[in-house]
């Protein structure tokens, strides 16, 4: 981590792959059952070992997309009921880091495999895939070109080879520990879901929050006394943050609704049997940074930069990868530093990869080609778009600013 720390000036957050990141959560689950899961170590002992008690049989894992640590604390300051409840149940509430990039495709793949982006190869929202010769949208697994939505699975993408590390479902299956995953019905069959839940037949769709929590409660009753990982993914904080930004009262309203429903619909009146030896973990994949219209840098306004690139920037708007024409790397870096240095810090991909920005190796066979030549880390309130968007995104993520790169670790026992 020392080399990476030297590479990232404050206040950029250094991903803590060694034991304080979301990448360490799968190994922590494995440690509860005496298993080795993923390639990263478990979380620091202080975050989970005080909760072991007489042992843990089940984990209820709630993954709230885009709940940043700083934003959650602002919500808790206005939500005394939830703050008191967490104290009453003896919850461990601490910040941990996301990974890099702090974006859904990379972070969720890390959570569902226990490996960092350097190993699983999902390194951004859009990625240059040399094997197909296209820039692809990694959520849909489709060609990322307006007016062309060619499906890469239909074009021959092999999910096992594309992400050549075992999923969490596959790893737990070998120990006869079932993984139940609840996700929205609209995304159950998405390309990304097919990658994440390989080897699992327990992917359960829900229609809304009430449905999700009712299904979780039924699973808690059904699996009493058994070893199991019961997980649910809730996307609404991400959606509303993209639309409104993470600061307005919409976020606080959603927090209140979700936390109240969690207490009153899911956890209240659970039987002692359904609570026994059950650990609850609540976390997020990333947070959000507010990017006003004046903070959006348009590539179309920088023709000198554009002509030196092989393809439009990939990755994420707050962590774009620049694929540079041969012999132009120094010129592109100089241009960014001179003309856009107020908005971005430019890093050489080879230096950042060697320092462990995308986590430790062994490297995915195609990760180097997917990262391009330079990676730009956005400063507070800035992003890079190829052209003006029809619908502005107020909240964005992908980079390493504290509000997007720090997330909560909340853990407590039900018994």
How would you sum up this structure in a few lines?
This protein is an alpha/beta fold and 415 residues long. It has a single domain (2-290, 401-413), classed as Alkaline Phosphatase, subunit A. The chain has helices spanning 2-7, 25-32, 69-78, 80-88, 104-111, 117-120, 159-162, 168-173, 191-196, 209-222, 236-244, 249-267, 272-275, 303-306, 329-339, 349-355, 367-371, 402-405, and strands spanning 58-64, 92-97, 126-129, 134-137, 142-143, 179-184, 203-206, 228-234, 278-283, 289-290, 296-298, 314-316, 319-322, 344-348, 374-378, 383-385, 395-396, 406-413.
Describe this structure in words.
There is one protein chain. This protein is of the alpha/beta class and 415 residues long. It has a single domain, classed as Alkaline Phosphatase, subunit A, CATH 3.40.720.10. Helices cover 33% and strands 20% of the residues. The strands form five sheets. It has a seven-stranded mixed beta sheet. The two termini are 38 Å apart. The model has no long low-confidence stretch (mean pLDDT 96).
Which key phrases capture this entry?
Alkaline Phosphatase, subunit A, 18 helices, globular, four-stranded antiparallel beta sheet, 18 strands, alpha/beta, 415 residues
Q: Mean pLDDT score, rounded?
A: 96
Terminal-residue CA separation: 38 Å
CATH architecture: 3-Layer(aba) Sandwich
Q: How many helices in DSSP terms?
A: 18
Q: Could you say which overall geometry the principal axes of the C-alpha atoms support?
A: globular
- Highest-level CATH class: Alpha Beta
Helix content: 25-40%
Give the C-alpha Rg: 21 Å
CATH H level: which superfamily?
Alkaline Phosphatase, subunit A
Q: Output the structural class.
A: alpha/beta
Give the biggest beta sheet.
7 strands, mixed
Strand order of the largest sheet: 2-18-9-1-8-6-7
User: What percentage of amino acids are in beta strands?
Assistant: 15-25%
- Poorly predicted ranges (pLDDT <50, ≥5 residues)? none
> How many strands?
18
């Amino acid at each position: 981590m020392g080399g990476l720390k030297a590479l990232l000036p404050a206040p950029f957050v250094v991903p803590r792959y060694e034991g304080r990141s979301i990448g360490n959560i799968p190994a922590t689950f494995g440690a509860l059952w005496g298993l080795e899961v993923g390639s990263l170590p478990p979380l620091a002992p202080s975050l989970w070992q005080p909760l072991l008690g007489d042992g843990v049989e089940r984990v209820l894992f709630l993954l709230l997309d885009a709940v940043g640590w700083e934003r959650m604390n602002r919500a808790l300051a206005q939500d005394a009921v939830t703050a008191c409840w967490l104290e009453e149940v003896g919850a461990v509430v601490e910040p941990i880091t996301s990974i890099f990039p702090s974006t859904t495709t990379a972070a969720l793949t890390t959570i569902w495999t226990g490996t960092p982006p350097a190993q699983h190869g999902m390194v951004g929202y859009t990625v240059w895939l040399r094997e197909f010769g296209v820039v692809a949208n990694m959520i849909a697994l489709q060609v990322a070109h307006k007016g062309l939505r060619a499906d890469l699975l239909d074009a021959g993408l092999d999910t096992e080879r594309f992400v050549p590390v075992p999923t969490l479902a596959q790893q737990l299956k070998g120990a006869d520990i079932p993984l139940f995953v609840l996700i929205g019905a609209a995304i159950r069959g998405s390309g990304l879901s097919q990658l994440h839940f390989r080897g699992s037949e327990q992917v359960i769709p829900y229609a809304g929050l009430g449905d999700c929590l009712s299904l979780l409660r039924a699973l808690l009753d059904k699996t009493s006394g058994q070893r199991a990982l019961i997980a649910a993914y809730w996307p609404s904080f991400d959606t509303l943050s993209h639309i409104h930004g993470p600061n307005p009262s919409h976020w606080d309203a959603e927090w209140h609704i979700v936390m109240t429903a969690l207490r009153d619909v899911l956890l209240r009146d659970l039987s002692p049997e359904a609570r026994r030896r059950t650990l609850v973990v609540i976390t997020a994949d990333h947070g959000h940074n507010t990017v006003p219209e004046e903070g959006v840098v348009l590539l179309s306004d920088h023709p000198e930069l554009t002509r030196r690139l092989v393809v439009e920037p990939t990755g994420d708007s707050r962590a774009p990868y620049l694929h540079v024409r041969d012999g132009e790397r120094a010129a592109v870096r100089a241009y960014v530093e001179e003309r856009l240095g107020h908005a971005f810090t430019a890093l050489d991909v080879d230096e950042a990869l060697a320092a462990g920005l995308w986590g430790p190796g062994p490297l995915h066979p195609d990760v180097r080609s997917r990262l391009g030549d330079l990676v730009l880390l956005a400063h507070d309130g800035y992003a890079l778009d190829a052209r003006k968007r029809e619908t502005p995104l107020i909240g964005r993520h992908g980079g390493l600013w504290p509000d997007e790169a720090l997330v909560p670790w909340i853990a407590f026992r039900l018994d």
